[in-house]
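Troubleshooting: if your tokenizer reports a length mismatch, compare against these two reference records.
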Amino acid sequence: MKPMLNAAAVATILTFAMQGSGFAQTPGPKPRSVATGSGPLAMDVAGVRLGMPVAQAQAALAGTYRCERPSRTQSFQQLVNVEVERRRGGSSFFGPEGAAVHELACTGPSGEYLRLFMGQTPTGTVVDSIDLAIGTERVDPKELVRQVERKYGRPTEGTAANGSWCVGRCGFDLTMEPSPRITVRSDAWRFKILGSRGRNARLADEAAVSAAAARDAPAAKRGAF
């Protein structure tokens, strides 16, 4: 028989904390409706929330997760500088060495593996997506889903205001979802929790880079001929 973590251990490994949801923290006997204003941006996975500044995410993981040296990428300002150079006819292809965190890869105390991918915004580096995985020999996926439902309500496709959280495939590629989403998923080998700020947030990041670059290098006005 496979060793299985008990409910308390599961709750320790996969922390889903709804901030300001209005729910009591003690799980009730039945699934509840999701509260207005709650949703993926208010749920945390291992203490990390979507949209959280990278420094806060690192602080939340410190002492519990062992993280590898983060990979780097261009910061928001570096992206703006590259775009300004491109508009001015510059020939830089690769751009400067990345000054911002791109990915954090961490291992938890019970063997769970957590990857955080970052987005570059005008206010700094934030958590863009979350990928947490643990082998099904260590956790009962059905029991964990029941715990999540008891605490936060039944899975919902959400609204434009608060995104959604769901169980299963959810019908779309997570990276293409327009709104924030938390997905709870399992197969024969792994239990996974996946989160994404959504495509609209990434498009907004790109638009912010273009807008900032336009202030330094406005598009040239051209005549009809």
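Reference record two:
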Amino acid sequence: MGRRPKYLTAEARQAAAREHSRRYAQSERGKTARAARNAQACTQRREFNNRVLGLHMPEGMSCYARPLLRASFAFEPDPELSLGLWAEPYAFILPGTSIRPSLDSGDGVWASPEARLSIYHYCRIMDEGPARAEGWRSDDLDLAAVEAQIKDEIAARRDAWVAARDGGVGSADAYALEVYLHWGARIIAMLGDEWELRKHGVEAYVAARSQRRLPWQIMRVSMFAMLNK
């Protein structure tokens, strides 16, 4: 004779399985296993957030890259506001002494020193984005060569970013360093994200541009959404 089944119905088996899972989750063994899984997932997320095109990024850079700083459209995007972000070696430099007084002469968040400094970086990204997209839409693009060039630029920007973060400035210039760190991190993240899109093929990249899904296009939408609030 066969052994009598412990559970006579599917519902009973499911209820027993749920009870077993509940007891295991509350046991020391279950708690230890859950903690290990959570720690592994956290590590994987952190490693993902700290890598751009496979290059390791410093801890905390992603926290600077995510928030979009307001850019003052009423302020002239003077090259003296570059902060060193637009020419190698991308090292942090303070705004020119001749332009500093005008940074503090406005009222409101859209006329703050941070917003006035930011307009130059916003405009440079919006100028270079379409030009880069035109070049990257070519079927004959040498992907290996372009990726090597991008990685070199990202690595140089990363090293300059770390040096600026660790170097520090006087309290009167701290706002300029914060703007540098925000836009420096954002430029790295956006460049990496855009190249990842291009690596999926020229058709996917062109489609993303037509759908306004390239990083600089998304940034523009986000900026005007803040402006219209």
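Descriptive notes for reference record two:
- Residues 52 and 80 are 29 Å apart (CA to CA).
- DSSP finds nine helices and two strands in the chain.
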